[in-house]
Structure prediction request, 251 residues.
Amino acid sequence: MIDLAPATGATWFTLTRHDDDPIEPPKPETPEEPEPATPDEPAEPAESETPEEPEEEPDPEGADKLGDAGKKALERMKAEKAAAKQEAAAAKKQLAALAKKVEAFEDRDRTELERATAKAERLAEKAAKATARAVTGEIKVHAVSQFADPTDAVDVLMRDPSKYVDESGDIDTDLIQSDLTDLLERKPHWARKPDPEPAPPGQPEPERPRQPRPDPGQGSRQTVPPADFRTAPKEEFNAELAKYGFRPRFS
Prediction:
């Protein structure tokens, strides 16, 4: 009898007697099932993620009364504030992504968890600094039209910048303006003086008060040094004695 192996298709020869039990052909080998793949670890949070462009904010109260120098300073401070807010938003996103990774590693390798925790702490510190810069920029923008030197307001209000940031990281501009108003009431000499209004078109600008010219006659005069009669001529010496009623015995 000739059999075919089901797995290989090769011919299998069996020589049996009619009264013996038939010999079964060998069974084909069953391939082992592959082990399930281990899921990949969560990817590192992207640090170079570009934050969304912040919406343009309106100018603070009194900005229309600023001169050219004040307007330039305001635009510069607004740009600094926008950049600081973008940096703070990016740091917050990185911190949130890394916090998820820390949770994923809690039941895994402890060494990897410690590295992720250390990185999260660095990002938290970075986010705090970026938020502080954003608060500083917000204070400057509101103070530039009210204070002669906006840095005076920054020095006072930045003693506790955390009071101006809520749990979601948003800056409370109403509280900043309220504290600036209260600061001016306590220190009115810090207030900004209004810029002089320009002359109407076609009219000359008002003349500035002239400074008085110095009087040469009122200046310091050169003093004549006293005469030394030990070396003075005889006639000058006799004349000086005559003023006091004396006359030398020798001529």
In short: Confidence is low (pLDDT under 50) at residues 35-49. The two ends are 178 Å apart (CA to CA).
